[in-house]
Amino acid sequence: MTNSQERAGARLGVELRNLTKRYRDADRELTVISGLTFSFPERGTVAIIGRSGIGKSTLMHLIGALDTPSEGSVLFGGRDVSVMGSDERAEFRARNVGFIFQFHHLLPEFSAEENVALPLIMSNMNEGKARAEAAALLGRMGLSERADHLPSQLSGGEQQRVAIARALITKPRVVLADEPTGNLDVRTATEVQRLLLEMNRELDNTLIVVTHNEELAQSMDMVVEMTPGGALVEHRKARRVPEE
Length: 244
Ligand SMILES: Nc1ncnc2c1ncn2[C@@H]1O[C@H](COP(=O)(O)OP(=O)(O)OP(=O)(O)O)[C@@H](O)[C@H]1O
Ligand SMILES: [Mg+2]
Known about the structure:
244 residues; Rossmann fold; 4-stranded antiparallel β-sheet; 8 helices; binds adenosine-5'-triphosphate
């Protein structure tokens, strides 16, 4: 599949095939995920729940090609990300995947607007256009007045909304959010939840959220629980009938 086909909206469902992840150090080996096979829907929202330390973040890193599996593969729309070279993988990731982390990882020396514009500038959009798009999306997030603030001049909830804007600005096919409401108060968490769902519908993409927040999990179309060995057990199937 060519990049232009991807751009033209060819669906990019995520498929895990016999995925295994081991961590090794000098004298120990820990198998976190063992032979996991799972298909995520091509659009809509999925919550991954499960106890602390079970391997949820590990799985997100594998899905997003930030880390490589010990065995098995991750496929996006049939393309095996695990066999790509590091440059190809980075480009694929920049084009197709948006990450939202618990601790947002905004660049401290750049303003909110610059943080959001950066992924577009990195993909060769001219700076003026990138900044205009970033400003518009920050407006959607209710942050017009904060566009020129540095991360240190933003509240936790504001920083998280900037991080969401940064993850969505490239209109990725798959958005991976690892505990996006983990350090927010209830009201801000609800606002972040609303924004994630609204943007998922608008971009018509797949949102995969790891969360300990019951309300956020229940607002997703599908809930899967990670169990020991990294198996994913479906609690609830898609509520929303996927549109063609
Ligand atoms: N780089 C690493 N080297 C060795 N072990 C690791 C490494 N990263 C994670 N682990 C171990 O792998 C297991 C899974 O970690 P992971 O971060 O995926 O858990 P999690 O489900 O996201 O937990 P939480 O809900 O607390 O975020 C843990 O036991 C952790 O200690
Ligand atoms: Mg985690």
